[in-house]
Amino acid sequence: MTGFWAVWDVVLTLLVVGTGLLLVLRWAAVCGAPIRVLSVPAFSGKTGCEVSARTCLKVFGAALALRLAVFLLGALIAAQLGLLENSNPLDIWERWDGWHYVRLVELGYDGYIEDGQHLFLVFYPLYVWITRLVRFVVGNTVLSGLMVSWLSYAGGCVYLYRLAALDYGEAVAAKTIWYLSIFPYAFFFGSVMTEGLFFLTTAAGLWHIRRHQWYAAGLWGILAALTRMHGLLLIGAAAAELCMEQRLFTPDARSLWTRIKGVAVKLPALLLPLLGAAGYLMLNEVVDGNPFAFTIHQQHWSQGFLWISRTLGYLVRNAISYPSLAVRWELWIPEVLLFPLFFALLVWAGKRCRSPWTLYAFVTLVLDYSLSWLLSAGRYLSCALPFFLFAALLTDEKPRWTAALSAGMLVCFLLLLTGYLAGGQIM
């Protein structure tokens, strides 16, 4: 089997690197590089539009109503499972990472210690800080965390709706939000975790990037980088969009200095998310006396970087041979299946959608699947926002495809939510 896995590494590496290279070349063509075969317009037949304030309010209200509906559905499932005999509907969301976020809100990073170490510095702080502020008013920690998640999710839906509608119209925008909301792991948007907040900060950042409002994008990027490490990817998305705006590689009369200057003057705004990363490093320094203490604590969680082919290799092995059959179906098999589905969607979108979004989606997918012990691929991918736009475009004006995809995701959503509440390895 050693030979098989060696071939596996080579083939997957070539596939991933080759796809990334093609996406970069297409982006260069869109930026003006003379690569005609790749300079294909992105859905030129679609008509975009601005979204009215009234529509934004409707989207926000519908998103909040959906979060309430999922909460009530969770309570109903929990009651059927006998989980509410000695607890209440709020307590069922205090599990896995949610348990740790509750403790961080109540005890702080200094006070929440395990084995004499600040192991929970690996959790980024913005969600903790905002939930703590809300808790001063609300009193209940779990309720405060849910409120932050629900409101963030609703705000994120507004930004993502506006972003999709700007290029492709409101029908595609509505379908984008629909697919995001029924994605099998989308119930995490309403939990005591960072998904809702990261969704908001990322969607807002991408919206302002698309509008070329660089400083607004940078400010949202600071918040995103304080929520998750992936918040820094907004820098790359902004750089890709800026180079497209400047037509950086177009062979015209502009001098090299003029081209560089056009990009350089915007760099302070583009690099603002680094301040969010700096804030996180400062937290590590204050709590543990080492700005990179989180890299040490990651070892406790068996986390670190691992090239994607190796990650997919152990996922496949665990899906086939992990001792517990239940854990295979709850954890490993879904993670294996998600990658080819998302990768195929990315390949389809590669020559059809805007290059900044395909590049952002590519890097997000690769990084999500480049961890030494990947337990939450589905949860991470719920915030890979361009993929839901790609799915909406793929099924646009195809009612049977839309119905089939929606039905499949809704069934998986219900199964995974039930498994999560029952204490399964769904995290």
Q: Give the number of DSSP strands.
A: 0
How many separate structural domains?
A: 1
* Separation of the first and last Cα atoms: 31 Å
- DSSP helix count? 19
Mean pLDDT: 94
Strand content: under 5%
Which residues sit in consecutive blocks of at least 5 with pLDDT less than 50? none
Structural class: mainly alpha
Write the layout of secondary structure elements.
Layout: H1 2-30, H2 53-80, H3 97-111, H4 126-138, H5 141-168, H6 170-182, H7 195-210, H8 214-225, H9 233-246, H10 256-264, H11 267-270, H12 273-288, H13 293-297, H14 308-321, H15 325-349, H16 355-368, H17 377-381, H18 386-394, H19 399-421
Give structural attributes:
427 residues; mainly alpha
Overview of the molecule:
The chain has 427 residues and is mostly helical. 68% of the residues lie in helices and 0% in strands. The relative contact order is 0.13. This is Glycosyltransferase RgtA/B/C/D-like domain-containing protein. Pfam families: Mannosyl_trans2 (PF04188). It is a multi-pass membrane protein. Its main location: endoplasmic reticulum.
Brief description of this entry?
The protein is mainly α and 427 residues long. It contains 19 helices and no strands.
